[in-house]
Specification:
The complex is a heterodimer of chains A (about 250) and B (about 725).
Chain A lengths: L4 E12 L2 E12 L3 E5 L6 H8 L9 E9 L2 E2 L7 H7 E4 L10 H12 L4 H14 L3 H4 L12 H14 L4 E5 L7 H15 L3 E5 L5 H5 L2 E6 L2 E7 H6 L4 H7 L5
Parallel strand pairs in A: 3-8, 3-9, 6-7, 7-8
Antiparallel strand pairs in A: 1-2, 1-4, 4-5, 9-10
Chain B lengths: L5 H44 L3 E9 L4 E6 L5 E6 L3 E6 L4 E5 L9 E4 L5 E5 L4 E14 L2 E15 L6 E7 L2 E8 L2 E6 L5 E4 L4 E6 L5 E6 L2 E6 L8 E7 L4 E6 L5 E6 L4 E8 L6 E9 L7 E4 L5 E6 L2 E6 L4 E5 L7 E6 L5 E6 L3 E8 L7 H5 L14 E2 L10 E2 L2 H32 L2 H14 L4 H18 L1 H24 L2 H7 L2 H30 L3 H9 L8 H25 L3 H9 L4 H30 L2 H6 L17 H8 L8 H34 L6
Helix pairs in contact in B: 1-15, 3-10, 3-12, 4-10, 5-10, 6-8, 10-12, 11-12, 12-15, 14-15
Classes of the chains: A alpha/beta (about 250), B alpha+beta (about 725).
The structure holds adenosine-5'-triphosphate and magnesium ion.
Chain lengths: ~250, ~725
Amino acid sequence: MNDAVRFRLEALTCRYGPAAAVHGVTLDIPAQGVTAFIGPSGCGKSTILRCLNRMNDVIEGFSVGGRVLLDGEDVYAPGFDPVELRRRVGMVFQRSNPFPSSILDNVAYGLRLHRRPTRAELELAVEEALRAAALWDEVKDRLDASASSLSGGQQQRLCIARALAVRPEVLLFDEPASALDPISTARVEELVTELGKRLTIVIVTHNLQQAPRVADRTAFFLLGKLVEYGPTVQVFTTPAEEQTEAYVSGRFG
Amino acid sequence: MGNFTPSRLRRVRLVDRLVAGGITAGGSLVLLAVAFLMVFLFAQTLPLLGGGTARPQSSATAPDAPLLAFEDDFREGVIVLGADGVLHSARLDGAGRTVPLEGARPPLREAVLDAAGRLLAIRDAADEVQVWAVRVKVGWESGERRLEPTARPLLRRVGAGLGRLLAAGGDVDAPVVVAATASGAAVLRGSADAVEIRLGTPAAVAAISRDGRELWLGAARDLSVFRLDGEAFSPALVAAVPLRRPPTAGALLLGDTTMLLGDAGGEVTAWQVVAGAVAGTRMLDAAAVFTGNGPVVALAPSPRDKTFLVRRPGGAELAHLTSRRVGLELPSFPADAVQAGFSPRRDGVFALTAARVVHRWRLEVPHPEATAGTLFLPVRYEGFTEPEFVWQSTGGSGSFEPKLSLVPLVVGTFKGALYALLFSAPCALAAALYLSQFAPSRLRTVAKPAIELMAALPSVVVGFLAALLLAPVLERHVVGVLTAFVVLPLGVIAAAAAWEQAPLAWRRRLRPRGELLLVVGALAATLATVAAVAPTVERVLFAGDFSAWLLASAGVTYDQRNAVVVGFALGFAVIPIIFTLAEDAFSNVPPSLVSASLALGATRWQAARTVAIPAASPGLFAAVMTGLGRAVGETMIVLMATGNTPILSLSPFDGMRTMAASIAVELPEAAFGDTLYRVLILTALMLFAMTFVINTAAVLISTRLRKRFGRLAA
Ligand SMILES: Nc1ncnc2c1ncn2[C@@H]1O[C@H](COP(=O)(O)OP(=O)(O)OP(=O)(O)O)[C@@H](O)[C@H]1O
Ligand SMILES: [Mg+2]
């Protein structure tokens, strides 16, 4: 186990306009394993997650205070290119959002953004990404079929493959399974666990059973503040805080 | 919710039914109104299609040995000159009057009438040639119209030695008579001696222009034109041309420009005087040839238009010079006709037979000059040497022929629309892309309504500004404006490229408001440079005067109100339409797709190019097509800014006339039911069809595209 810190949040404060949504969160995310963010709706989980690859940039009036360090570098520093950041830190959204094009084109999208890969390179990378997303066997015969011909769970795995194809160091999941049926959810969870062995994974989840299943560490947020952060087992079985206890036992939100 | 009593339920249902009925009725009324409009427009253009009809009417009885006949304006009767030297006014109801030509000794040997039906030349039994002014006075007597032929002697000359009388012409003050001689023709005018024109062979046909100044003589081997004016009265040869066959009949069409010659081969050739190869010379040119079965016996010109009657042994038919249309047969035309002609208003034809019958036909050929050919194909009008597309619906003189080619209008319409799109589509699409994908939302909330407000500017104001402000300014600064067109985008691209090279730290500090400032700055700088450099460019490249250079080097004229002005003005009107629809299309692109693209490391431009634009493309296409439809139908701006010159030219520096503008300008002047009126209605129909096709295509193609870029994962 490698204890290197991938992300370090230092007193991260996020504002939408004048209203602060996240208040001084300080948190280290190790390079290895899966980190889960849990907490009631509106507590700022997505906001923090989106700070990690600066997807909040496009939101009008959004501002950050504090620092977000990726491998020791402040991603909000003036010289830091958000485009480069997003290539290193991929993201999978709550609702699958494949492009309205073929399966192959979806996975190849990120590769084609930065250079013009040869057909052979492309096919290799696409196969690798689809295998990593456990989708290869299901789609290998119809790579040119429209992405919309896939089921919801397959589409979500396609989105994961698409994110993996650019070989990110970190993959962020924002409630990746909340729109899926139990079987698809299980497959995505398996995948998250599997990927956690190679990449830094941060996953936001509402599902209190999901966090213990996939996450090595869990952070519990309430009203924009970090309440408790530690190994998942500890957070769920012997929480230090009363509020955590209330939340994980289902007496909350 | 629970307390829906039966009575309340009934009331709700009633209201429901009433509202539904009202809406259905309203909608049906609208559809009905549109349908009615279409049917009306269509019905108004239908008469253009038909070739017309000629129906036999009741005939009149002529006196013994009739020489010639003519009709009065109202076609109440026929006036027949008999060999007895008397004008017999044969009313159709039998009540006749007679007017003797005093001093004409019967039996008259021959008689000819001029084309206007006012001059009658006769040769009497004593071989005297006399010219009479004839007229049909119409009076009222006990509530009935009465026809009173009158005849006044004008000229009496000894006709000995002269051959057949060929033609009479000129006006009442200076009548001219032409007779054949053994070696050519003799011209009798005023009190002077007869002037002999030598042709080598006796003249067979002749015609004198209505002003009496031009004489056409056809002999066995050639056709010649002479000028008769000048005090000395010596006919001067204008032009001559050898003929393949001896002419058997001749007639000068209204306008005195086209001489028709018929021959035994059945052909009728339309001859016109055109400029010769050597400057200042004239020559005769066969503008058209009409063929038919059987030798041509006689030709008669219409007094109102370019229609003429061709008589053959087997019958008679009508033909029209401009449309080159032939073949309206006169049913049961008598084989023994001695003379035939049109009524003064061209609403009928009569034929006089040796058997003392005047046959009559009612003619309904309302639009002989408007055929698919004249409307859509090049036409060689009188005075032209080549077939051309011309729109010139009104002219000064009575014999002016309307030229109604729709091609210049259609081309002008599309030219204006395309120049407008050339300017507006890039502007509007770029604005929509920028505001929806790049601009800070504060700017968007200001700019979007501002652009949409452009649509609220009345088009008459836009047209007015374009015509009175933009056009003169543009004329003075063409070079600058055209340069700016090319340089502005380049300047922005260059600025962007330079910006990419700037240190990242600088670039970071500016987004996103800084980008806007940067672009505006780049635009301003480029504009300033262009403004500063344009005079030099004009001096160096175009010798200081662009329009003069254009004319000298390319032979292109510069109209002040030209397609560039229209492009700007019409483009200004079209921008808000394209912008609004394009902005909608961009707004409908699922943000999740753009997010997905950005999350994969795309720059905003990459996200726009690979996701937003393809996903919005059906809507963008529809936006541009709708803009095109609007530009095609726009009236006020083109009316004011195009100069309204209906010329066929694609040059950006020429004006134009659009279909909509033609309708607006000319329909109020057109008489209900006449050819111009119907052609304008046809133009309106075509305009409707065009916008309909454009809009339908927009919908169909964008639906197709939408299927291809079909949205999913909303
Ligand atoms: N685009 C935005 N503009 C303004 N306020 C926002 C925006 N996005 C989120 N917020 C606010 O920030 C706070 C945190 O939102 P966030 O989406 O991070 O919550 P969350 O924990 O992810 O909730 P959920 O579990 O429902 O997804 C909320 O109070 C929300 O109202
Ligand atoms: Mg969330």
